[in-house]
Amino acid sequence: MLHPSDRSALFANRQIVLSIAALTIQAIAAAYFVFDGIDDAIAQFRQGPDLELVMELLVALALLLSVMLGARQLRRSIEQSHRQAAALAVARGAMADLLNARFSEWKLSPAEAEVALFALKGATIAEIAAMRRAAEGTVRSQLSQVYTKAEVTSQSMLIAQFIEELI
């Protein structure tokens, strides 16, 4: 199963590919209408101006302009998406660094650190026990040790401590 951030990245990539495909189709259509209008204008040149031909050329040029503006906007959106992904990676790294620093400071054992991480993600004792293939009593004991070392009394206080530091 994909991690939520992986799913959102995959969705964003699909959107980018679809946007590029739509933009490509529009560009091809615009190019066709512009070249067709120029061809018609050359053929019509000797006979004098034709209002329908002028309108056709204006619409073709407007379509071409909208394709260029769409490409510019798509490029900006992709750049913004990359900046947001980079910021999220920094935030994840900051959270990971903070977790490692606190777990080390509290001198948590590897098992206690794993239980603490699951608790920070909002898992219940039963869920943690199932994920770790451990007895609920063992998880309860390990979580109690985490709370004591972190100087908190509940899961919500543990979570709040990290949120406070990040904010």
Layout of helices and strands:
Layout: H1 4-44, H2 51-105, H3 110-120, H4 125-132, H5 136-150, H6 155-166
Helix pairs in contact: 1-2, 3-5, 4-5
Chain-averaged pLDDT: 86
Q: In one word, what is the shape?
A: rod-shaped
Head-to-tail CA distance between termini: 31 Å
Domain count:
2
- Biggest sheet record: none
Report what the structure shows.
- With 167 residues, the chain is an all-alpha fold.
- It folds into two domains: 1-88; 106-167, Winged helix-like DNA-binding domain superfamily/Winged helix DNA-binding domain (Arc Repressor Mutant, subunit A).
- The chain has six helices and no strands.
- The chain has helices at 4-44, 51-105, 110-120, 125-132, 136-150, 155-166.
- α1 (4-44) packs antiparallel against α2, α3 (110-120) crosses α5 (136-150) and α4 (125-132) packs across α5 (136-150).
- It is rod-shaped and about 95 Å long.
- The chain starts with a helix and ends with a helix.
Question: What distinguishing features does this structure have?
Answer:
85% helix, single chain, 167 residues, Arc Repressor Mutant, subunit A, 0% strand, mainly alpha
